[in-house]
């Protein structure tokens, strides 16, 4: 019957929209987590390298200390391997040019190195703030997407309910009323309605024909 097919289609449509909404939410969160983790990890490494370089500069007493130089170079190499933002490369170049003289406590080089480390640290902190803002925007977009999908589900449900009431509930109530009237003695009452689906009209005709036969 076409009516049964329409009801079945409406039910499957609502299920499909809900599945799409669930898959969309999963897709958004799967995109968010790895990207944020990678950005924060790389910038965290650079910030850690900045901290080590600052510690070495603070510990240096102006003499040539191979261990301190090795620690500084390792930290600098770590920062160089984690360049993610514009401006980091230039700051790292300034550190590379001046750090040896800075370890010997030569004031101009020491000031330039400290400024470059501070700039490198600032670039990485700003990158982490931007990453957090991007995540918030993606989360907001996902939330509004879920709201839109929920509205679609609501609309589909309302349309399905209206169609179900018009094509099934109301006709069943009509049949029930006619049968009750017939049992109460009103033998002339018949099923009727306007703009009926073909399936419902066929059922009404069958019920009316049965009532006509019983009256005869």
Polypeptide structure, described:
This protein has 216 residues and is mainly alpha-helical. The chain has 2 domains: 2-153, Four Helix Bundle (Hemerythrin (Met), subunit A) (Up-down Bundle), CATH 1.20.120; 169-215. It has helices at 2-59, 66-81, 88-103, 107-183, 198-215. The longest helix has 77 residues, at 107-183. The two termini are 30 Å apart. The mean pLDDT is 81.
Rg over C-alpha atoms, rounded to the nearest angstrom: 38 Å
- Give start-end ranges of low-pLDDT stretches: none
Q: Would you state the CATH class of the largest domain? A: Mainly Alpha
Report strand %: under 5%
Largest beta-sheet characterization? none
Counting helices, strands and paired strands, the structural category is mainly alpha
Number of strands: 0
Task: Supply the number of helical segments.
Answer: 5
Helix content, binned percent:
over 70%
| Topology as a string of helices (H) and strands (E) | HHHHH
Q: Give the total of domains.
A: 2
CATH architecture of the largest domain: Up-down Bundle
Put the structure in a nutshell:
The protein has helices at 2-59, 66-81, 88-103, 107-183, 198-215.
Secondary structure elements and pairings:
Layout: H1 2-59, H2 66-81, H3 88-103, H4 107-183, H5 198-215
Key traits:
216 residues, mainly alpha, Four Helix Bundle (Hemerythrin (Met), subunit A), 2 domains, rod-shaped
């Amino acid at each position: 019957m076409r009516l049964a097919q329409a009801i079945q289609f409406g039910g499957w449509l609502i299920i499909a929209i809900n599945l799409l909404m669930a898959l969309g939410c999963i897709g958004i969160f799967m995109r968010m987590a790895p990207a944020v983790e990678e950005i924060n990890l790389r910038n965290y490494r650079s910030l850690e390298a900045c901290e080590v370089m600052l510690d070495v500069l603070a510990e240096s007493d102006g003499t040539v200390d191979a261990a301190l130089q090795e620690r500084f170079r390792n930290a600098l190499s770590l920062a160089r391997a984690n360049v993610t933002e514009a401006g980091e490369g230039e700051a790292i170049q300034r550190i590379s040019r001046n750090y040896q003289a800075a370890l010997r406590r030569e004031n101009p080089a020491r000031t330039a190195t400290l400024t470059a480390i501070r700039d490198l640290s600032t670039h990485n902190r700003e990158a982490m703030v931007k990453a957090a803002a991007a995540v918030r925007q993606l989360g907001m977009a996902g939330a509004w997407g879920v709201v839109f999908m929920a509205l679609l589900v609501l609309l589909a449900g309302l349309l399905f309910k209206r169609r179900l009431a018009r094509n099934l509930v109301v006709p069943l109530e009509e049949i029930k009323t006619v049968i009750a009237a017939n049992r109460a003695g009103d033998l002339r009452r018949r099923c009727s309605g306007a703009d009926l689906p073909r399936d419902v009209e066929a059922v009404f005709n069958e019920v009316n024909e049965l009532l006509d036969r019983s009256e005869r």
